[in-house]
Amino acid sequence: MIDSSLKIVSNLQVARDSMMLRLECPEKPLPGQFVQVEVPGFYLRRPFAVADYQDGILTVVYKIVGQGTAFLAGMQPGQSLSVLHFLGNGFDVQKTAANPCLIGGSVGVAPLLYLARFVPGATVVMGFRSAADVMLVPELEALGCKVVVCTEDGSAGVKGFVTGALPAGMDYYYACGPMPMLRAIASATCVPGQMSLEARMGCGFGACMGCSIQTADGPRRVCKDGPVFKNDELIW
Amino acid sequence: MVDLSVNFAGLNLSNPVIPASGTFGFGEDFASLWDLNVLGGIAVKGTTLEPRYGNPLPRIAECEGGLLNCVGLQNPGIDVVLGEKLPWLRSVYKGAVLLNISGFSEQEYVKCCTLASASCDVDAVELNVSCPNVHGGGMAFGTDPASLELLVKAIRKECTKPLIVKLSPNVTDIVAVAKAAEQGGADGLVLINTLLGMRIDINTRRPILSNTTGGVSGGCIFPVALRMVYQVSRSCSVPVIGCGGVSSAEQVLEMMMAGARAVEVGSASLRDPMACPRIIENLPALCERLKINKLSELY
After folding, report:
1. pLDDT tens for residues B2-25?
2. pLDDT band, very low/low/confident/very high, at B135 (cuts 50, 70, 90)
3. What is the domain count for chain B?
4. A171-219 tens-digit pLDDT
5. Biggest distance spanned by C-alpha atoms of chain A
6. Is B45 within 8 Å of B22 (Cβ atoms)?
7. For residue B169, which of A98, A219, B192, B204 is within the disulfide window of CB 3.0 to 4.6 Å?
8. Could you report the per-residue pLDDT of B213-249, keeping only the tens digit for each?
9. Quick check: B74 and A219 CB within 8 A?
């Protein structure tokens, strides 16, 4: 884990209320790890999943949910951000799975893009509220993924939730998104998988116990022991 | 060469900077980043007799210049702390270890302090009578002078280590509470724990924190902490550790000029894991500029 000042390459809208931030970064992350970005004028850093890393450029995708992310959305290329990186355990890529599936919901689709570089040819199932929220489809298709989009209102792709569109023959999954989606996946399939959790965090590196959850192995910190957990570690 | 060393309640500290309980775990998450031995002391995570998971999520909210938490004393229990956490900490850290102890009854506090007194890995007991996030104990003792004095007296009988009482700012008269702790036999005081606060999510119209309220910490509470340190250090004869919103060497000196002998750094470490070593590194040059030859001349 290091804290360094990273220069903004671009900071552009990718979907409704969603921004893609690209930063110059010499260090390479593992898929599923995250960063803590200091937003000028705000006390706590904001945790964002690594969405991609290529040729010294770190990409994160974030949703504008409050004043901090709204301020961040106004920052310009050339400006720098203090970024604590890389945090968390990341996905444990399973080489033995024949038909792995990457499942994401809302801004939780972000880490699937970088993960897809390590799971070639995977099917990606992504859920969004509406067509205006859909993102990262061309990027994932460019990596050779078969992409299935679901929307709650049917305005793009399949109408309904990701659990209705899981591919037949799926023998392993990697999922990231809001808790209700992860819970629904856990009850919709008995296939083994890994889940990356979202949580309000304090420090992001294990010190404050602000994001601890109860697991089958006792209390675990989402930031330090996760954010990725095996599906059978989690208690629903 | 500026002399940064200070003496606090019989503990000789190489410098006045101590990470505050609850913001530093047992040191593990920082030891991989920098040598803990730069620290004057370490106040470890609040420990209870039994293991505690604490409150549900969300436990963290933000405010201007700080944050709120309702962690609720998550800890593995005193047996694991004394059996595993502190022996490990002692193996990497040679300075003073303050074991922060919390409880829900006098018996629990006494039992924990008795166990802590028997441990060679504990240099002082920091009594937490000020946690705002648990029901049925904690702050209840720290907000009533009479019950605090009785609690400290009972613990004093069994505690062979320096006994430091961490006070709650959520009182009308901090001096009365501080004097009660002193009367009970405290060797020192820490001021202050978090201020009780809350935030509401205007979209859901519900409190953000699972426990509705939480403890406010961070830069925004520094003036309150400083004022309480100033008032108490003029009214009590036991030494005081200043705690609350400190994130710079300048604020360390400000706390000491208000009457503190040492300073705990809390939330600053959560936004910047290098905060403590940075503060300590900046102290000598700042002292030279202010013509302070040794920090102990400030108290």
Report:
1. 999 999 999 999 999 999 999 999
2. low
3. 1
4. 999 999 999 999 999 999 999 999 999 999 999 999 999 999 999 999 9
5. 49
6. yes
7. B192
8. 999 999 999 999 999 999 999 999 999 999 999 999 9
9. yes
Measured distance CA(B184)–CA(B165) in Å, rounded? 10
- Is the predicted pLDDT of residue A57 greater than 60, yes or no? yes
d(CA B100, CA B149): 18
**Cβ separation B29–A219 shorter than 8 A:** no
List, in order, residues 6 or more apart from B272 with CB less than 8 Å away: A3, B247, B278
DSSP-derived pairing of the beta strands B206-207 and B188-191: unpaired
Measure in Å the smallest separation between the Cα of A207 and chain B Cα atoms: 5
Q: What is the pLDDT of residue A95?
A: 82
ipTM over 0.90: yes
Q: Answer whether B106's CB lies under 8 Å from B140's CB.
A: no
Residue-wise pLDDT tens digits, B236-245: 999 999 999 9
What is the predicted pLDDT for the residue at B115?
97
What CATH number is given to the structural domain containing B127?
A: 3.20.20.70
- Contact between A97 and A171 under an 8 Å Cβ cutoff? The reply is yes
Please tell me the pTM assigned to this model: 0.95
Contact A206 B270 (CB under 8 A): no
Q: In whole angstroms, what is the distance from residue A193 CA to residue A94 CA?
A: 10
Distance CA B282, CA A163 (A): 55
CB contact under 8 A, A1 and B273: yes
Q: Is residue B209 part of a domain?
A: no
With vertex at residue A139, the alpha carbon angle to CA A135 and CA A140, rounded to the nearest 5 degrees, is: 90
The CA distances from residue A185 to A140, A149, A164, in Å, are 21, 16, 10
Look at phi and psi of residue B136 and say left if phi exceeds 0, alpha if psi is from -120 to 50, else beta.
left
Is residue B99 domain-resident?
A: yes
Does B131 qualify as catalytic in the annotation?
yes
Q: pLDDT confidence of B1, banded at 50, 70, 90?
A: confident
Chain A residues with CB within 8 Å of chain B CB:
1, 3, 38, 42-45, 68, 84, 199-203, 205-214, 219, 224
B211 assigned to some structural domain: no
Q: Domain range holding B260?
A: 6-50+76-195+218-298
Residues B123 and A159: their CA atoms lie apart, in Å, by 63
